[in-house]
């Protein structure tokens, strides 16, 4: 037994069905060798990678419309990896990344569930420079701005891995540190275009969801 339980979920993106293995609930936790603890993942945070969040759905929908021709794309904090699976189905040059010890196996399993080739994956800590990862034309992420430290770390990853002419696309449910991240990317030469979006079918204007596109 792996020490955690899972369930199957169907998600519809652009009229297509994605079958996904996710954690059965937010109470799941197992860290027998202390790997997650050494990475700084607390028991309360451990299960978050294995859920499907509204911002993740929003990012996946955005990837249906994104220009992928000739672009190298990096997803940060991919979790279950729905956006990367959408890009993989479109034939994009995408690399998914996360720091959770189980992300790679869940991502590979979910690619197989959808008859897709395995998505290229890199274990990536935002506080550890990884020069071998290279540079990207488009960097995407969802639900990554809940804490100021996250905004600062994410801006550092962008600085190290965004190409000279690059875009960054972040979906966010209205967390408190977008303004910090906006200032940090402005200092790197990025201009912001923000679109407010409904996070679910019950959301009404003014929408709390944000689709943040940074360009330079």
TrEMBL record:
InterPro entries: Methyltransf_16, SAM-dependent_MTases_sf. This is Methyltransferase type 12. It holds the Pfam family Methyltransf_16. It comes from Dyella thiooxydans. Transmembrane segments: none annotated. It comes from the Bacteria.
């Amino acid at each position: 037994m792996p020490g955690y339980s899972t369930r199957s979920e169907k998600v519809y993106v652009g009229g297509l069905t994605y079958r996904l293995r996710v954690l059965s609930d937010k109470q799941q936790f197992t860290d027998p060798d202390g790997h997650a603890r050494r990475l700084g993942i607390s028991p309360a945070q451990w299960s978050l990678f294995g859920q499907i969040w509204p911002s993740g759905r929003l990012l996946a929908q955005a990837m249906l419309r994104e220009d992928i021709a000739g672009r190298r794309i990096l997803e940060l904090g991919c979790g279950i990896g729905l956006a990367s699976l959408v890009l993989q189905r479109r034939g994009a040059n995408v690399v998914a990344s996360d720091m959770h010890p189980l992300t790679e196996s869940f991502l590979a399993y979910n690619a197989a569930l959808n008859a897709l080739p395995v998505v290229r994956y890199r274990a990536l800590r935002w506080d550890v420079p990884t020069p071998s990862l290279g540079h990207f034309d488009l960097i995407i992420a969802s639900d990554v701005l809940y804490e100021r430290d996250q905004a600062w770390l994410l801006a550092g990853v962008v600085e190290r891995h965004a190409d000279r002419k690059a875009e960054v696309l972040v979906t966010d449910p209205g967390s408190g540190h977008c303004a910090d991240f906006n200032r940090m990317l402005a200092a790197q030469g990025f201009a912001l275009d923000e679109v407010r979006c409904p996070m679910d079918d019950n959301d009404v204007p003014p929408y709390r969801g944000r689709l943040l596109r940074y360009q330079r």
